[in-house]
Automatic annotation (TrEMBL):
One of its GO terms (biological process) is peptide transport. GO terms for cellular component: plasma membrane. The lineage of its organism: Bacteria, Bacillati, Actinomycetota, Actinomycetes, Propionibacteriales. Belongs to the ABC transporter superfamily. This is ABC transporter domain-containing protein. Keywords: ATP-binding, Cell membrane, Membrane, Nucleotide-binding, Transport. It is found in: Cell membrane. It is a peripheral membrane protein. GO terms for molecular function: ATP binding; ATP hydrolysis activity. The keyword Cytoplasm does not apply. It comes from the Bacteria. Coiled coil: none annotated. It comes from Microlunatus endophyticus. PROSITE patterns: ABC_TRANSPORTER_1 (PS00211), ABC_TRANSPORTER_2 (PS50893).
Length: 281
């Protein structure tokens, strides 16, 4: 890793509501995919995970969710809520996933069933994980749609995924992810598939949810422009390792690692934080 020190104190002082990844390794069929990833994801912050395609960003997010291919071996440590997630029994990690650690993806329709109404998608999740009544679940679903700023929440509950635009659908998938009140949200390229005109709105929503709910957000993106609009800290990955990690402004304005410098030079007009409209409202 570059000489820059990690942005927040690690080890014993790290908040249990965040995720502390140390020396995380993952091999698939004997091929090393993650080669000792160190990452701190504190609550109330957006931790950006940048890097070129294949560097291991998605696999890091999936490993934190306890989702990895069958023929894979995971090592190192992922601490969350006072627990060690590496080696945790599948039943236990399944309980955490969706309830305390949630994930959204590039394609919002991937996580939503095309034949089930928005009400069904939001309430099934709540009833499964929280065991609440049908009417309580509906109330909570309306609250969630308000929180992600979907217009006419009661009307939206009756509709189906294909009746929404990509941006609205990503907001609905965020609502589904938030249904059970997770502490950690992993957002993997959440705006990559969206029209550029709606990207900023979704990023602003993620930023506000992070601030309002104290969520620990991991924002996976290959786009340093997106990163500079919303992340507090940026970790840059290459070949399955974090090669640089620090406050967003420092990493983008004064990169230490040659690979980070190359990524920044590849940005149109070398845009930095001050050149981007920030997603903070
Ligand atoms: N199911 C799998 N089986 C074998 N190898 C895989 C599997 N999924 C991913 N990989 C490999 O793991 C490496 C890291 O992939 P990962 O998806 O984490 O990269 P990434 O940085 O998120 O890239 P991208 O931006 O393209 O998604 C890549 O070399 C990829 O080919």
């Amino acid at each position: 890793m570059s000489q820059r020190s990690a942005p927040e104190p690690a080890g014993g002082t790290f908040s249990p509501d965040g995720v502390l990844v140390s020396g995380l390794t993952l091999s698939i069929g004997g091929t090393m995919i993650l080669d000792g990833v160190d990452l701190e994801v504190p609550p109330g912050q957006v931790t950006g995970l940048a890097g070129e395609s294949g560097s291991g960003k998605t696999m890091t997010g999936m490993a934190i969710c306890g989702l990895q291919p069958h023929n894979s071996a995971v090592g190192g440590s992922i601490r969350f809520a006072g627990r060690e997630l590496v080696g945790m029994a599948e039943r236990e990690i399944n309980r955490l996933r969706g309830a305390e650690i949630a994930m959204i993806f590039q394609d919002p329709s991937a996580g939503l069933h095309p034949m089930i109404s928005i009400q069904g998608q939001l309430t099934d999740h709540l009833r499964y994980h929280r065991g609440v009544s049908r009417s309580q679940a509906r109330e909570r679903a309306i609250e969630l749609l308000e929180q992600v700023r979907v217009p006419d929440p009661a009307g939206a509950l009756k509709r189906y995924p294909h009746q929404f635009s990509g941006g609205q659908l990503q907001r609905i998938s965020i609502a589904a992810a938030l249904a059970c009140g997770p502490k950690v949200l992993i957002a993997d390229e959440p705006t990559t598939a969206l029209d550029v005109t709606v990207q900023a709105g979704v990023l602003r929503l993620l930023r506000d949810l992070c601030d309002d709910l104290g969520l620990a957000i991991i924002l996976v993106t290959h786009d340093l422009g997106v990163m500079s609009a919303v992340a507090d800290t940026v970790a840059v990955m290459r070949n399955g390792k974090v090669v640089e990690n620090g406050r967003r402004y420092d990493v983008i304005r004064n990169p230490q690692h040659p690979y980070t410098k190359a990524l920044i030079e590849a940005l149109p007009d070398h845009q930095g934080p001050s050149d981007h409209k920030e997603a903070r409202s």
